[in-house]
Amino acid sequence: MPGPDQTQTPTQEPAETSEIGYPKELEAVYDISVTVSAVLGKATMQVNQLLKLGRGAVVELDRKLGEAIDIYVNNRLIARGEVVMVDDVKLGITMTEIVKSERQ
């Protein structure tokens, strides 16, 4: 029992976690599908320029070579990253920065 000048702090039980280390109460959302997009860059052009594009045409993007790409989940920017090779045949992305949400 604490003395007169001591306070007793309640002990808080740790939240129960799932197999993957997240709170169990979130399990209901684990299997929801989301769309992940990796955007290399963007360009703006007029329709007449677009119609002139043909095989071999190069469209200049707003990014420099080696600059981080944007990673979107359901059309919301969540991270930036780099393009990597997966199994020598596919492209992948490695996240290098998590983008803070503007909604807080």
What's the helical proportion of residues?
under 10%
The CATH topology of the domain at 34-98, please? Surface presentation of antigens (SPOA)
Strand content: 25-35%
Describe the strand arrangement of the main beta sheet, using strand numbers: 1-2-3-4
Pfam families: FliMN_C (PF01052)
GO molecular function: cytoskeletal motor activity
Protein name: Flagellar motor switch protein FliN
Region (Disordered): 1-21
What does this structure look like?
The mean pLDDT is 85. The chain has a 4-stranded antiparallel β-sheet with strand order 1-2-3-4, with no helix packed on it. The two termini are 41 Å apart. Helix content is 6%, strand content 28%. It has a domain of 65 residues: Surface presentation of antigens (SPOA) (Roll), CATH 2.30.330.10. By secondary structure, the chain is mainly beta. The radius of gyration is 24 Å and the shape is elongated.
Task: Offer a quick outline of the entry.
The protein has 104 residues and is mainly β. It is built from 1 helix and 4 strands; from the N terminus they run βαβββ.
Protein topology:
Elements: E1 36-39, H1 47-52, E2 69-73, E3 76-86, E4 90-98
Antiparallel strand pairs: 1-2, 2-3, 3-4
